[in-house]
Amino acid sequence: MATIGTSGIDVSRLCLGANVFGWTADRDTSFAVLDAFVGAGGNFVDTADSYMWRIPGNSGGESETIIGEWFAAHGRRDDVVLATKVSSLPARKGLAAANIAAACDDSLRRLQTDHIDLYYAHYDDQSVAQEEYLDAFDSLVRAGKVRAIAASNFTAERLRSALEISRRDGLAEFVALQPHYNLVERSEFETALLPVLESEGLSCMPYYGLAKGFLTGKYRDGGAAVDSPRAEGALAYLDDRGRAVLAVLDEIAAGHEVPVAAVALAWLAAQPTVVAPIASARTTEQLAELLPVLDLKLTDDEVRLLTHVSG
């Protein structure tokens, strides 16, 4: 277990991304994935009110609804650190104070719980003064509806200014950032965002930890077609650098007798400020490829080699 920033909230080394619930994983399959994840010792689940409104027949909130139904059916709320987000659902767009309050109540209803452990601003909203939305988040914390707040997809400049405002005004502060970061997409986070997180004591929970599935090792030259809506995006990484990364991942995975995906996530988990990389699984079989990261620790040489070959 590791602690998220200054929140006092302890989480497992893997965060289960629930974006596939209500999309490529139906209710029963999502229940099975949640059962297996918690049964293996995982406790951190990440969703958003907007998952997955873009899918035909959906309107948003499907992932939260499934998780809420799982809580109701199994009574496992206290076994899960639950993260969700506000600002990108079309019906609850942006970070105006009234919208945050309403969106939070909507999420609590769908999730069938009285509190959210970690509530993210899914995207920054520069049409709203930061003072306004930080005050709104603070009100949720004071009301007991939210335990801690965090930012997702923020620039370094906006993240730093949000922290300065919260400290100046005595408001709840962001304790973590959820950025786009993985073994083959490093530069933006490491050059701009990492210094802010290190200096301010924030934790990192990177999304796209497996680069749309590329870092599972399933996408190879001449390999069988992969049945995934992200296949085209994953194949974009299959260049000379991507092939070199896969070769090293294969070698390390063989040495530890674990799947390639677990090694890629373990590299992320070993990076400064990273508390729990986020990865999703649309079946229990896919989840099994991720679970070893809960205990897998790479050697310093293995981390350095992966850092070098992916640089």
From TrEMBL:
InterPro entries: AKR (IPR020471), AKR_Detox_Biosynth (IPR050523), NAD(P)_OxRdtase_dom_sf (IPR036812), NADP_OxRdtase_dom (IPR023210). Residues 13-307 form the NADP-dependent oxidoreductase domain. It comes from the Bacteria. Coiled coil: none annotated. PANTHER family: NADH-SPECIFIC METHYLGLYOXAL REDUCTASE-RELATED, OXIDOREDUCTASE-RELATED. This is Aldo/keto reductase.
